[in-house]
Amino acid sequence: MIPQPLRDLLETGVSVMIGTRDQALMPECTRAWGIRVEPDAASVTVYLTETISRRTLANLRENGRIAITCTRPSDHTACQLKGAVRLIRPPDQRDEEHRHRWKREFFSELVAVGVPAELCEALITDPVLAVEVEVQESFGQTPGPGAGDRA
Amino acid sequence: MGDDTPSLESLWPCFQGMIPAAISTCSRDGTPNISFVSQVYYVDASHVAISFQFFNKTHRNISEHPYACIMFMDPRTLQAYRMRLHYERSESSGPLFESMSLQLQAIASHVGMSEVFRLRAADVYRVLEIERVAGFTRLPEPPPSERADPLFVSHELAALRVIVERINRAELLGDLLDGTLQLLDEFFGFRHALILLAEDKTRKLLTIASRGYPANGVGSEISYGEGLIGTVALAKRGLRLAGLDHSLRYARAARDRADRLGGLGQISREIPLPGLQAACSQLAVPLQARGRLVGVLAVESRDPAAFQAKEETLLAIIGGQLAAGIDQLGRESEEAAPLEPGRPARPPASPPATRLRSFCFFREDDCVFVDGEYLIRNVPGRILWRILRQYQDEGRTEFTNRALRMDGWLGLPELKDNLESRLILLRKRLEQKCPDIRLVPRGRGRFALETDVAIALSERSN
């Protein structure tokens, strides 16, 4: 179960980064365009564009191990989720609706910290694949002592 | 890396810390980890550093499995880049650590968390691969003209900074002179170099320090206007010569003269100016403090193209700092001297010296010979004679600049006379000609006489 404070954080326009590794344990990272906590509060769906996440998707298909860090740009509140991929699939209507809401909030977060809106609008956030993840561990990751403690 | 692969330098906007970067690592058991880092630091063309402030998973992972992947963005366009890294080392002191630490402290102090945000180490990674992440933004890359790298300090500039800092830290004239030559060699490859001090009264330059020559040549003289060095002194302007004809070399003139004198069966009282065999290029800059010539800094090389405008500029900048240091330390050398008179020497603890050094003082020209060979003359000659006499007659081994200054026989002017430089000259001549007798600095304005041999003194009127 993802604790409530982290669920609340994940409902906002957080910046989402994904860590994976290949068979030789070589780390890889990429940016995801949105995250959604599923109603069971034990799984999330993240959205990846294939163009920028080829190795990540290959790693996920191969071993399924995933780390997700989410941080809210305006206050650096952050958390990390670790788990295993359940399914990689094209997005459905519900995903698209969620993603558009997330994108609006994420962009307004960026604008709030001084990123020009036209830079945000130029980001290529489509088309995506939906990656369903069963969350096994969650951590607070706000910078400072105690970052990385289990939530 | 292919042609499309960006260089680390070209990613300078990403190093500004305007947008946090993400770093992924992996534990030995195969669990990936990802976290944000506030800033990635550029170290050199193939290394970056990340601050290690808290014991966290990233730090644990790289100690188990030293690989990482970083994704960061150019804040001008939000273009993303990935770097694949290999962890090399953690630095907890030194310039990189200091500068990262200072930056963190400045930020932390704003929020009153200086202690909490203490930098533990700068984790340095080698960059294995850089990838421009295609398909991230629709914006074009800024044209290369905007890609000047204002963030990076060139090697030369960084080295200049280190040299200038060290020059400013030197507390003794001898350390300043030798240290500068060493730094010029280490940082800029000036392997053969000398520093000469100007004597306005005699319009001569006296070699006070050298590096990269078989004989240090300290004490050798050259007149204003003579050769490259003398010309530089006269014109007070830097000068470089390349593709020199052998017969034109400044050093040879002095050496030939000395050889000639020796060849005629006379005892040579000239010290040859250090010179590089088959030197093809030379560069010299005046050392000036507030417009007054204090000396000349000269370098030479066998490479005909070794010295260009860049080298001249570097040497001019360092020369400026060096001149200020010489000027200041020369004047300050006695200010801190203790007032107590020299103490009598303790009885020698070691077995009595069996070897003997014979010193002879020629009264007419204040010239000192050791074992029949010319050692030194003029004021440094008189100083040496005074020191040896006091050692012989009173057993004195400790001396102060102040006491020498007040010694009427030495005839030192009250002020403006660079006593410290004369002592350096004397010290180095001894190193060269009789290393078993040494003048050892004891801090500013004091020195001691150390000897491994017995000393015999005689005086002659030429």
Which key phrases capture this entry?
heterodimer, A: alpha+beta, seven-stranded antiparallel beta sheet, B: alpha+beta, six-stranded antiparallel beta sheet, 20 strands, 29% strand, elongated
How does this structure look, described?
The complex is a heterodimer of chains A (151) and B (462). With 151 residues, chain A is of the alpha+beta class. Chain A has 4 helices and 7 strands, in the order H-E-E-E-E-H-E-E-H-H-E. Chain A has helices at 4-10, 54-63, 93-112, 117-121; strands at 15-21, 27-32, 35-37, 43-49, 65-71, 78-89, 128-140. The N and C termini of chain A lie close together (10 Å). Chain B is an alpha+beta fold and 462 residues long. Chain B has 10 helices and 20 strands. Chain B has helices spanning 57-64, 95-110, 155-169, 173-188, 227-235, 250-263, 309-332, 378-394, 401-405, 419-433, and strands at residues 21-26, 32-37, 40-44, 47-52, 67-74, 79-91, 121-132, 192-199, 204-211, 221-223, 239-242, 281-289, 292-301, 356-362, 367-370, 373-376, 398-400, 437-441, 446-451, 454-460. Chain B has a 7-stranded antiparallel beta sheet. The model of chain B is unreliable at 262-267 and 338-349 (pLDDT under 50). Chains A and B meet through strand 1, strand 2, strand 5 and strand 6 of A and strand 1, strand 2, strand 5 and strand 6 of B.
Strand order of the largest sheet of chain A: 2-1-5-6-7-4-3
How much of the sequence of chain B is in beta strands?
Answer: 25-35%
Number of strands of chain B: 20
Could you say which structural class the secondary elements and strand pairing of chain B correspond to? Answer: alpha+beta
- Low-pLDDT segments, ≥5 res of chain A: none
| Element pattern of chain B in H and E | EEEEHEEHEHHEEEHEHEEHEEEHEHHEEE
Oligomeric status: heterodimer
The strands making up the biggest β-sheet of chain B line up spatially as 2-1-5-6-7-4-3
Q: What is the rounded Rg of chain A? A: 15 Å
Q: Quick one: overall form of chain B?
A: elongated
The global form of chain A is globular
Biggest interchain interface, per-side counts: A-B, 37 and 41 residues
Count every helix of chain A, treating DSSP H or I runs of 4 or more residues as helices: 4
Strand-pairing-aware structural class of chain A: alpha+beta
- Tell me the radius of gyration of chain B: 29 Å
